[in-house]
Structures are given as C-alpha cells and as structure tokens.
Write a structure and sequence with these properties.
The chain contains eleven helices and nine strands. It is an alpha/beta fold. It has one domain: TIM Barrel. It has a nine-stranded parallel beta sheet, covered by helices on one side. Helix 4 packs parallel to helix 5 and helix 9 runs parallel beside helix 10. The chain is globular, with a radius of gyration of 18 Å. The protein starts with 10 loop residues before the first strand and ends with a helix.
Amino acid sequence: MSPAKIFDQPVVSVEYFPPKGLSAERSLMTGAHALRRFEPAYQTVTFGAGGSAIEGSFDWSVSLQNLNEVPTATHIALCHFNRESLFEFAENLWEQGIHRLVVLRGDAGGQLAGFDSVADAIAGLKKLHPFDVSVAAYPEVHPLAESRDVDIANLIAKQDAGANRAITQYFFNNEDFYRFRDEAEKKGFRRDIVPGVIPITNFERIIEFSAKCGASIPDHFHPLFEAAGDDRAKHTDVARKLIEEQVRDLAQNGVLALHIYTLNRVDLTADAIRAFNGEFDTNVAAFRPALVG
C-alpha cells in the first residue's frame, strides 16, 4: 500500500445536510447520536443552496462535533466565498476544533473565492492551518469536464496541492468506480479514493438529481421501484437491498473506506454500515491481499 494511503482497515464516514425545521433538527441530532455506535472515522456537514448555508454549515458542524465527539468535517463550497471570507470561515472552524474540510467548487461556473482553481484554494487553506482536506472525484466524469483525462488531471492537481483523499460523487454501478479508481491510480493519483454511496430515499428525486450530476441509474432499478408503488415500506425495502448489495460488492473487491451520503436517513445508513462491516467480520482472510501490496 502506498504510504500516501492511510486506510489499512475498514472505515466508514457519514455525511449529513443542515436540517430545516425543528422536527428535522431533532431527527438529525438523534440520528447522529445513534450512528455514533458504529464509530465513524468522521462525519461531514454539507452546504445547502445559497449563501445563508454558510452559517448553517458552520453551526451544525460545531453542534454535531459537540454532540457525539466524532471528528467533523465541514464542506467548503468555494462559490460562496471571496478570499477574505474563506480564510475567516476556515479560521473560525479551526478555533472551534474542526480541522477537517471537504473543499469543492460548488455551483458550476461560480467564482472560486478569488483563486484560479480548487487546487490553488487548497494550497492556501493548507498554509493557513494543516487542515485534513478531502476533495471530490467523479467516477462517471464531471458533467462539465472536457474529458476523463482532464478530470483526472484536475484531481491530481488537488493531490499536489495537499489534498489528503478524494471522495467520489455517488454512483450505482460499481464497475464505474473500479475503472475510475484504476485509471486515476495509473495516472499518478496516490491518495485514497473513497467511494460515495447514497440510499435511494426517493426514486423520482434521485433520477432528477442524478441527471444534473452525471450519475447514471441502472435500468433494472426502475421496475423495482415501480413495483413498490406508493408503499413507502416497500420502497425502503428496495432501497435497503440495493445499497446493501452495493457496499458488499465494494468490500469484496478490496474497498476499505466508504462514505455514505445519508440524506439524514439513519435507518438505511445503519443498514449499509452493517452490510459493509459484515463482509470483513465474516470473511477476514479474503481481504488480506487488499491490505498489503
């Protein structure tokens, strides 16, 4: 294993979004506390849309870290900042004990906080403090990228600027991830590439969002959810089966780190973690080759 890669045993990280409304706030706090028992390596809080999300992301990052003592990472969507406000925001996070960032461009075509690239912004943040920085990667190519080669070149530039790992956009076909991971490593990416997975809590919404972010939906998903109809329990059963199958396959193919976009659904997230960890618990010997070399 390359010295730049740090995962030598199975780890899971989880991502939440800032809730809206008292009920959603209580649900998030209860859920995050419940997921603590799985000992996630870290938890992240994403931005919502619009500049007002800056305060929400900061407040919830601090609240969650104080709630369950799981290391917390805050998303930095560069499109929301100029250079001065970016460093002020990062400094405030550091003072609150939040030393992990997920640094992203944010809105396509938006400003980059006065920097020429995401990589340049990462280098600036690393000079401010030795943040642990995760960046985005795209197994099916960023929708606005000129090509796969350009996409991977940008990823390597972020590595050279100090990124500690890449977390992928969610995907449903694991073969897309395996091809991307192998190609990126072949071209010089030496950090961990952590697959991001998502439970399908609402199939219609996931179709709409996937069209925007370039994540393809396997054909066989459609009849499964159509058969569930308006029965929410059956819908959840389908979602559970699909994400459990996906993470088991990832584990069986040597993946040691998993990032779950929870959509604040603790039940499906817990099921995915159990399925992922269970592969290692029940068949440890099969994974020894993935832990070395």
